[in-house]
Please model this.
Amino acid sequence: QVQLQQWGAGLLKPSETLSLTCAVYGGSFSGYSWSWIRQPPGKGLEWIGEINYGGSTNYNPSLKSRVTMSIDTSQNQFSLKLASVTAADTAVYYCARAIDDYSNYYYYMDVWGKGTTVTVSS
Amino acid sequence: SSELTQDPAVSVALGQTVRITCQGDSLRSYYANWYQQKPGQAPVLVIYGKNNRPSGIPDRFSASSSENTVSLTITGAQAEDEADYYCNSRDNSGNVVFGGGTKLIVL
Model:
């Protein structure tokens, strides 16, 4: 059974860079899209972006200027960096595996990490 | 528009049927999916594509669609179904979008 294990710093100061990593265990790493999603306290889900096995990325336009995603296929890991954080970036951050079948118009996230709480405070 | 619109809250009596809707222009192109999220937990996929349930999801969960609206139906709602439900899909620009979420209250 595929599991995603994520980690990273949980407390940041304004202007610092958020850095999270997600490792994939128990399943194939290729053939999927790997996403990051966040959820501010008491609010809904917000897609941050995705990266595929080949390293192609697609970012939420509202965050694009600050987001960098990377992938390490040798370690079955992918990472998120979000620069210049502010209090508005305080949220639970999730990594997720996505099935992207664009020829049949399917896109869904079938496996999620447990989430990492990131707080931005001076 | 790349937005998906959901009602903030819906209630249902125990054992009755409830429908949660999601509306958006992107749903004319891409299938929608539904996620269940309980407090303090990660979302769980309950319906994907046209009307597919992942392994382990009870068959009381089903989905239907019409033009730019998709619906998640729970037939015979149980107490454990009380949760937030989110729809999502890709929009016409290739971005991934989520609805604002619907809080389901089981009375």
Observations:
- The radius of gyration of chain A is 14 Å.
- Chain A touches chain B at residues 35, 37, 44-47, 50, 58, 60-61, 94, 98-99, 104-110, 112-115 (CB under 8 Å).
- The longest strand of chain A covers residues 91-101.
- Chain A is about 0% helix and 55% strand.
